[in-house]
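[Q] Does anyone have a clean structure-token version of this?
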Amino acid sequence: MRKYMIRFLTKDTFMSNFFYLKNTNKAIIFALFLLYLF
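[A] Here you go.
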């Protein structure tokens, strides 16, 4: 799971994905997912 997250973080689309999810409820789930990993 951590390896997948590292690969995801290294992608250039990370920021675009973050801002895309920012205006939706998925942003909360995404944040909780990050907290779960770290």
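[Q] Thanks! Anything notable?
[A] Residues 2-37 form one domain.
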